[in-house]
Amino acid sequence: MYRPFLVVLFVIFVSACGTSQVKLTWDDFADVSFEPEYNAVYDVNFLMPQFGDQIQAFKGVQVRIKGYFLDISGSGEIFLVSKNPMASCFFCGAAGPETIIEVRFKKTPPFKTDQIVTITGTLELNRDDVEHCNYILKEATGQLVN
């Protein structure tokens, strides 16, 4: 009598685990510090990230974050999700690099800069490549919030 119920419950549990993602907040991404490190390619010191244990636990995990969509290239080539709108984002000096995430979409979305979106993707922690953001969401999809 209980066996069919348990089988159904197990199938639901396995299905949920296989498609779930972890919802993170911007406080989660603040689990990072920065240390100066010499870069021979550019012959200059860069502040390189030292990721904390909390954020490292999400490396390679499908996560979800809500923020402001930014097309920083202006031509649909480089996308970010930011804690802040464009006028006060990291590049304008009002925040740190932990407040932006580079997004590599599966398919280019129709979003416009400063729209509030929820982005889902696999989290990559980028410690060494100064050409890219410290946080990257790969194979990402997005949903417009406003």
Automatic annotation (TrEMBL):
<protein>
    <recommendedName>
        <fullName>DUF3299 domain-containing protein</fullName>
    </recommendedName>
</protein>
